[in-house]
Amino acid sequence: MTPEERFTFDLEGYLVVKGVLDRDEVDTLNALADDVWPGDYAESGLRRTSRVSMWGPAALALVDHPRALPYMVELLGPKVRVDHDYCIFMHKGGKAGRLHGGPTMQGGVPGDHWYKCHDGTIRNGLTVFTYCLSDAGPGDGGFGCIPGSHKSNYIASIPDEVRTYGRHPHYVRQVEVEVGDVIIFTEALIHGTMEWTAEHERRSLLYKYSPGHSSWSETYYNAAEYPDATEQQCRMMAPPSVGNRPDTVEASA
Ligand SMILES: O=C(O)CCC(=O)C(=O)O
After folding, report:
1. Ligand 1 center to 83 CA (angstroms)
2. Fewer CB within 10 Å: N-end or C-end of the chain?
3. Residue 169's domain spans which residues?
4. Whole-structure pTM value
5. Ligand 1 binding pocket mutation candidate from 49, 183, 206 (most atoms within 8 A of CB)
6. Rounded to 5 degrees, what angle do the CA atoms 204, 82, 5 make?
7. pLDDT digits (tens, 9 = 90+) for 162-220
């Protein structure tokens, strides 16, 4: 990460990395989605499915995309593991849930999401890498958050009408992205899905990571289900552990 990226992530709890995917990668992923997961939108205007990493080689490659991997290691540590993955596709008018997440306690309930920075080292619990297959311009909706809330001490004071998007105070931000960008955010950030208002479809692929010792998901990957996974991807898919876990990225000799 550049010093400015580190500053921004520490300040706001998320980061947009521009142009991680090139046009070919985006086209391939879109074609895979159309092929493997065609289907109609329900009335909600929202489609979600998990394990998009199984769609094919281009989707598996996102587990440790070379442009994203250095951010994973820096934000989650050398033993970073992939926790779970899914996608969010939306049509105009699509809605999903409310602002959620947040540091440590979510409205009085332990949430087990966390962000720390100590002596220049950043560490996070569950952290998301969202590969954007569509633009989200001003007012389009999609990913929204309360920048800086990963360090807030008053999240229980966020009014319910704000969490449910009934009111849009200045401290809630819809994050603008272009095709190929990646949004990285800690789940310790208050975040959610804002109503999609654009004419074009929203397509986002979300890959979530945990430090080597922990898991958010109740189920783990089974590398045997990914015969084409590389050794590095298999290391990332291993169940959580600390003792003797090799580093995700092998030290070069
Ligand atoms: O990208 C989005 O729409 C928000 C995703 C979300 O809420 C989450 O990952 O928990």
Report:
1. 15
2. C
3. 3-237
4. 0.96
5. 206
6. 65
7. 999 999 999 999 999 999 999 999 999 999 999 999 999 999 999 999 999 999 999 99
